[in-house]
Amino acid sequence: MLLKNDISADYIKKLTGEQRKILCSEIRHLLVKTVTNTGGHLASNLGTVELIVAMHTVFDTPKDKFVFDVGHQAYTHKIITGRAKKLNTIRTEDGISGFPKSVESEHDSFIGGHSSISISAALGMAKAMELDGDDHSVVAVIGDGALTGGEAYEGLNNAGKTNCNLVVVLNENEMSISKNTGALALYLAQLKSTQKYYKTKNSVKDILENTPVIGKTLGSAARNTKRMLKFALYQSNLFENLGFKYIGPIDGHNVEEMTEALSVAKMMKRPCLVHVYTKKGKGYAPAEENSGEYHGISPVNSASADTVTFTEAFGRELCDISRTDENICTITAAMKYGTGLQYFYKEFPERFFDVGIAEEHAVTFSAGLAAGGKLPVFAVYSSFLQRSYDQLIHDCSIEKRHIVLAVDRAGFVGEDGETHHGMFDVPMLTTVPGSCIYSPSDNKELSFCLKKALYDDEGIAVLRYPRGAAFYDSGAKEYYSYRHISNGNKKIIFTYGRITANAILLSDKADVLQAVRIYPIEEKILEILSAYDEIYFFEEAFESGSISEKICARLIRNGYRGKVSVTAVNAFIPHNTVVNQLKIAGLDYEGMKKIIGE
Ligand SMILES: Cc1ncc(C[n+]2csc(CCOP(=O)(O)OP(=O)(O)O)c2C)c(N)n1
């Protein structure tokens, strides 16, 4: 057994090529055994085992820096950098994160979670090194899915004109979560199929002749000039034209070839793109056959999905409505299944648009559809919508474009942790003039709210709902913008969304005011709250900029002199179960009970 608990990059560097190959299969075995139990991003990690082993063979972290785009594919990096024995704790309370995190390890040079940022971050680090006279390299690993995001091009554009020691590894597997879409996917496929290596290239010879100091591993690679020349550069592709040296395409499951290619890239001492092709889910048949389903899997003991999630309720309801409304178009940023749009896609493929990981584009594209007379519904995770703030203001709000945002994963998301919580949609969207926000507490309310958002609102109409299923049955038979449950208490709870279920269980101790249309804040809500001595706000959203803050400000302006207490989210709460995250924030039943007191 070559895979040991305390495995390190130094250890890997000492292995023979054959041993590294064996090590890769052992790592793959560990990944399948562990992640099918803990849950996590299985398919993406199975695809990057050889790549990461090759990276650690050639480079020396933390002096050299690795930036993993999204960061969902870095488990092998965690294994090699002292975290093998913690792999079985991944994504659990006090365990290691499913993404790179610099507080977790000095080998994790930059946070992971959101897509398409790696080239910009890596370039910044490479520039900082250059300014400090540090000769080490920065390696960004980016998938073809993440390369559909606009920021990746902003990074390429700025990197190509520098002389930084920057290596971009493009990991192409033809998949985002679903099949990768767009013209770029076609372009990369073409580039890959060209398979044309230049046998001799002056530029490579130059590098070999003009590289004065090379390490031991590189020295032996450099001596093997003939083999290296096969990685010589294929000129005149998109990346070359942007100022990168291009190496590839390389079989991303061949450790030796990749070690050589990366060694060449390292020696170049200038921006260099290494194009590797891999198989998502490699080595585990179910994940190879259905990499979409195995992109992210749930822990083995997680609750069975016999209740209909908010996501599914939204997807099916929208599909029903769209049968009689040909104007409805749907948009996803590479999250067809995650947002429940697969039902719509199946019935109305011509009105469905997967735009790639391009949330900014998705908002402006939606505004364009609206300008063209369509009724666009952009379904997006709350945390990924964050990058579209300007598009919402400039492209939608000013000219009052009517678009519907189906904001999924609003609230705590559990195991993905702080990068994925949907806490900022409320603070963000309430500052976009003309927006209207609904936060149903179960699927029945969701259904009524969706129709309101589609047909009764103007401008940006938002439907926000969390991951998973509702905590209760609201019994709603028709739309209401708020619900006041009054038992004659002096105290009142104000809340909305799924945690309404907890509040209602406390309605013998405090009356409850549940908002369903949470923004704009209705006068009637202020009127009801003003009549109570004590108001307890509970909100599954970030406190700064929350609805609670806004209501408090207006109550004070109106002269309210009673007691107020606000419990909302104030911190980045790490990976855990949703149940525990709600508990940590004081938003579970027990927490609420304690806060309102007897
Ligand atoms: C801004 C943003 N939007 C959406 C996502 C969700 N997401 C995570 S991984 C992924 C697909 C990434 O594909 P690729 O980069 O090719 O990596 P692969 O999983 O294929 O290895 C998506 C859409 C995200 N992390 N960030």
Helices, strands, pairings?
Elements: H1 9-14, H2 17-38, H3 42-47, H4 49-58, E1 65-68, H5 75-83, H6 118-131, E2 138-143, H7 150-159, E3 166-172, H8 183-194, H9 202-209, H10 216-223, H11 225-229, H12 238-241, E4 245-251, H13 255-268, E5 272-277, H14 285-289, H15 310-322, E6 328-332, H16 342-347, E7 352-354, H17 359-371, E8 375-381, H18 382-385, H19 389-397, E9 403-408, H20 425-429, E10 436-438, H21 443-455, E11 460-464, E12 482-485, E13 491-496, H22 500-505, E14 511-515, E15 517-519, H23 523-530, E16 534-542, H24 547-557, E17 563-569, H25 578-584, H26 589-596
Parallel strand pairs: 1-2, 2-3, 3-5, 4-5, 6-7, 6-8, 8-9, 9-11, 10-11, 13-14, 13-16, 16-17
Antiparallel strand pairs: 10-15, 12-14
The chain binds thiamine diphosphate (TPP).
Structure commentary:
The protein is of the alpha/beta class. The protein has three domains: 9-289, Thiamin diphosphate (ThDP)-binding fold, Pyr/PP domains (Rossmann fold, 3-Layer(aba) Sandwich); 310-464, Thiamin diphosphate (ThDP)-binding fold, Pyr/PP domains (Rossmann fold); 482-596, Rossmann fold (3-Layer(aba) Sandwich). It is 39% helix and 16% strand. It has 26 helices and 17 strands. A seven-stranded mixed β-sheet has the order 7-6-8-9-11-10-15, sandwiched between helices. α6 packs parallel to α7 (150-159) and α17 runs parallel beside α19. The chain is globular, with a radius of gyration of 26 Å. The chain starts with 8 loop residues before the first helix and ends with a helix. Thiamine diphosphate (TPP) binds next to α3.
